[in-house]
What does this fold into?
Amino acid sequence: MSSADKAALLASLRDIHEPLAPKPDWLWLIAAIALGIGLVAVLWAHRPRKKESLATQQINAARTEPPEQALVRLARLLRARIQNSSDNIKAQTQGDAWLQILDSEFKTSFFTADIGRIFGEDLYRKPTSELNITTLCDQLEQLHDASESKGSV
It folds into this structure.
């Protein structure tokens, strides 16, 4: 090789440089973020939910029934509640004594001094048109939820 060739060859050489850092592939990054968001959404949609109690199911069913049937359903629910939480003798009580047992169970005066009186002797009479089943169900659901959160089921 001649010196002219060597000089031309040396002139064509460049300094040694470090290789360029790889460029991030934004498409993969966006896809990974979208996948993560999708996974979170699926997990959120399938998260365990608090199951509705049987009492809440019965109260919600009573909301859609005619007043006579709704009252019977709610009265049975209250009897079962007292029967499960105490002795059978209390669950067989009637009238004002029954209303007092309900008040003591739920720690309220709803049954002896409010619309809850319907579950005493009035239960066996034809409900008046002014009876609002939705209001009655709302009150019972609140009492149930309050007593459930205190630990007495």
